[in-house]
């Protein structure tokens, strides 16, 4: 079970020319630039596309993960009993001489691709994941981390030879911000 407080999602949206023109027309009706209109729920009402009823369904590349801060933790439950708490800062391989857990860190520089970026932060119960295995060992858990410009994010947890099943999520978006990166800004 994963029980954390903050999650960040970054969407990179690059539209085709036809989509860009249509979406910009709708944004102009709302008297907003397109990147700000994408955060407005009324934008999707005026858009009148059944395939895109909200920001969540906007076709884009999504990048997200759990922010590593001092009070965020992963709880491991076995047969309904809490077995262990792992604080996200314990997963950072640069903090310890020897790693405490198996981690794989990927590096990514954000804002190097032109497009519209939308950042969201969520608070609450991020999710519960279940592994079906007969012989569970905490040492076999693999924590997949992503190092972005200034943040270390926990993207996923895997277990060898097991399928991960997502169970539930209860979050509230408490921060949204959008901006544009032009090829001229590079």
Report on the structure:
It is a single chain. By secondary structure, the protein is mainly beta. The chain is 13% helix and 45% strand. A seven-stranded mixed β-sheet has the order 6-8-9-3-2-7-10, with no helix packed on it. The chain has a three-stranded antiparallel β-sheet with strand order 1-4-5, with no helix packed on it. The radius of gyration is 19 Å and the shape is elongated. The model is unreliable at 1-6 (pLDDT under 50).
Helices and strands in order, then pairings?
Layout: E1 2-3, E2 6-13, H1 17-29, H2 34-37, H3 41-47, E3 61-67, E4 73-78, E5 81-87, E6 102-107, E7 115-131, E8 142-147, E9 152-158, E10 164-181
Parallel strand pairs: 6-8
Antiparallel strand pairs: 1-4, 2-3, 2-7, 3-9, 4-5, 7-10, 8-9
Helix-strand topology string = EEHHHEEEEEEEE
Q: DSSP strand (E) fraction?
A: over 45%
Give the helix proportion (percent range). Answer: 10-25%
What gap, in angstroms, lies between the N and C termini? 41 Å
The dominant shape is elongated
Q: What is the typical, i.e. mean, pLDDT?
A: 82
Rg of Cα set: 19 Å
Properties at a glance:
186 residues; mainly beta; 7-stranded mixed β-sheet; 3-stranded antiparallel β-sheet; 3 helices; 13% helix; 45% strand; elongated
